[in-house]
Amino acid sequence: MGKVILTIIALGHIALAQNFISQKSDTLFPVESKYIYKSIDDVKIITSDNNLTSLSNLWNKKPFLLTLIFSRCAGICSPLISSLKFSIEKITGNEREKNFYIVVLSFDTADTPEDMDAFKKDLNLSERNDWIFGIFADKEKIKKFTDELGFWFNWIDSIGQYDHPGIVVGIRDGKIVRILVGGEITVVKLREVIDEIEGNFVPFYEIQKNVAFRCLNYDPETGKIKIGIGTLIMFIPAFFTFFITFTIFIFSGKIHKQNQKSKNKTGDTKMRAKFFKAFTLLFAVISLTNYVYSIPLFARKYNRSCFTCHTTPPMLNEFGRRFQSNGYQLPGTVESTPIWMSNQLPFAAMLHSMFTWTKEEMGTEKKSTFTFARTGADIFTAGTLGKHLSYFAAVVIDPAEGGGYEAAVEVAHVIYNNILPMSNLNLKFGSFRLDLPYPVNLALSEAGYLVYEYASEVKANGQVEAEFSLAEPQLGVSAYGFLPQVLDGLRYEIALVNGTNVNEDIDNTPDLYFRVNQSIWINNAPFRAGILYYLGTMKGSQQENKFNRFGFDAEVYDPWTKKVNVFFQYLTATDKIGDEERKMNGGFIGANVFILPEKVAGFTRYDFMKVGDEKTNQITIGLRYHFAPNVFLTGEYSWMKQDTKSEMGMPMTMKMQMFMLMTHFLF
Amino acid sequence: MKAKILATIACIGLFIYGFTGIDQPSNPPKEVLEHGKKVFNYVCAPCHGKDGKGDGVVSSTIFVKPRDFTSGIFKFRSTESGNLPTDADLYESISLGFHNTAMPSFSQLTPEDRYALVEYIKTFSERFSNPKEYPLNVVMPTGAIPLSPESIAKGREIYLRMKCWECHGVSGKGDGPAAQRGFKDDWGNKILIPDLTNPNEVKRASTVEDIYLVFTTGLNGSPMPSYKDVLTDEERWHLANYIYALIHGIALYDGKTIEELKSEQ
């Protein structure tokens, strides 16, 4: 009952507020909604060529645009008429015969028809019969008439001028159809008004208050109605309400009880516990490891916002991809001023903190945890060392177990850029991330890509001696580039790396990575497709693993709004250790939606992976909100399910749900 | 090799000669246009689109939209309201970029690249090849009035009298009553009125001449009109001095300079 009363009060408040808005009195400008479809007085006017007529004589022939000025005006009147003239010519192509008049009347009792004729001549409109300049024949009726339009004027002695707003009113059949206000009349708005006075139905008016979202938008140029962001936004509260309600239902509806575990567990139960812990650790590592790279120091260097290169940090837009390919310099340029001669500090940092709610299920074992992770930080440094020489390094500082923090150099490399011009060929030395189709450090989602995280390894005495995954940085050398001259751009990388995730190299066999990706633009929306191949050998003290990766990827942007980006990756892996061969195949498909530029973005992804009999599926969905370009909040929900077998061969299903709230602050 | 040398000489020659484009449409060599197209597609197309319509893929994720070159309407010019920009205007825009937008300064592009871009950008709109658009009426910023407290004070008076505050606000912060209603440019994109006390928000105002030109030429395609016909040259210089002082922190919004404030204390 309480909820019903609250709902009624809420809706009533909204209704009252709307009513209040519509009854609100004019301030400096007329509130358009008060005057729409009101009739105006049929006053008599004397035109600039001294003809007496009435407004009804005009509107009975054609509708008209009406504006009010005075000939001595040193302010807004001339710019207003000039912009009106310019905009009308843009719309009608300067045709002499139009379907409407433009009526310019003086509200100044001192003005004469000759004054208005001179004004008309000054504006080079003397020969134009569609422009009617004039004065009111009956001075007593001026005030009443202008009040009908919401127009006011006050004489100011000190400057010998009238203070008044600039307005243009659309009149059809003696009724006000639209009112435009301001010192300049733009083409877009005027086109709507002309449409309406000519009798075309324009179903939507621009609401005269700040409206961030609309469900439907009317395009006056094409006359079409398009779905707006507001339609999507409408569903967001519903989605979050459902999600929060569902979460609370699941959490509170089932009372968490600690199972009374027997002291003597069965072998299967012990193994399940081990798998459970390993799975949790894997999920935590995948989900909580922060790979975000977006560098405010470039924003400072070029004095531009982060969004010049990022759709939303860290994800790069097309310009940012070319910037990166050009050795972290503007595309088409080759910089030579080294960082020590620049007045910019070549460092940037990112602070991040996270709240997570996790629910894990394995068989009958269930566990929920709430966690506030301690704030971590990433430090970046990058820049130019000389002509064709630049560098990049990132240090990650994360909370250590048991307290304190630990720091590690994640990547550090030198780039010889633009060996061939237009970033056709660059060389990179040091530790770096392989140029994957969807770089893990540039993703919006915190949930890792399962197939990129998949590890090839060698063991000694049951312990992992070395491992490799595509997601981790490698040590080596890479030749990479971007060829803009090949259709709409070809990206490639050929790298020789140690293949042990920047840990100590355990053998002298370099691994090979190759990737190529081709872009074609349709209506300026990129369609990309590519392949990647990795061939590696890991020689441990007891095992040798010959492994590979092969994948193909595709990505599209919707060619209409370019706000939706859909991407796909399929990847296979083969590991051969002795006579044993293990295969993995899987991939992911996802979408990013750039809901409001520089403000709100949504993302979702489905990952799938099969290794032998083990299947893993993961779904993630999230929303990012920017308080500022460098301060943002991300909410993300992930669900993972793994079907596997215990050592005893019993089928096992593990599920995990995680809700994360992450804050990022870059400076 | 020979062709490349010839093309380079042609570029440099036209670079020197071709920086007019004031009296008649320019007619650049094919090599220049091809070079311009190559640079444009690599550097500019992600934002401006390959066809120059301003709907490159980046445009969907930035608030201030890239310029649509096909309309032939450019805001920042040295020519009178309604006119095309000169080649030098376009070259300057590429070289300096615009604050508070995603357009960086491309001063590191070679002059040949920038000149080729200018010629290629002009191919997007028929206006540039229409002889009726010429000659362009170029505004020469002559008769500059030195920056002084008196000029700043006069500029403040004009700012109030001309009702600049209706959009730009009494304090210049872009919070005038008209601004709150929301403005759109000719391409239907929302415009934010800049905070004139924040140099990073004003797109182009490095010098007093820049600001004087804005008042004289207006910003085509935007609600900012030209005041050439309603303010004298002298008044526009005073107003430019006031706005410059506001942007660069030399004076407060009421026209009082920092020096005056210090001397009062």
Automatic annotation (TrEMBL), chain B:
Metal-binding is among the record's keywords: yes
Gene Ontology molecular functions: electron transfer activity; heme binding; metal ion binding
Residue stretches making up the Cytochrome c domain: 31-125, 150-247
Alphabetic keyword roster: Heme, Iron, Metal-binding
InterPro entries the record matches: Cyt_c-like_dom, Cyt_c-like_dom_sf, Cytochrome_c-type_DH
One Pfam family per UniProt: Cytochrom_C
Metal-binding as UniProt keyword: yes
Source superkingdom: Bacteria
Protein name: Cytochrome C oxidase, cbb3-type, subunit III
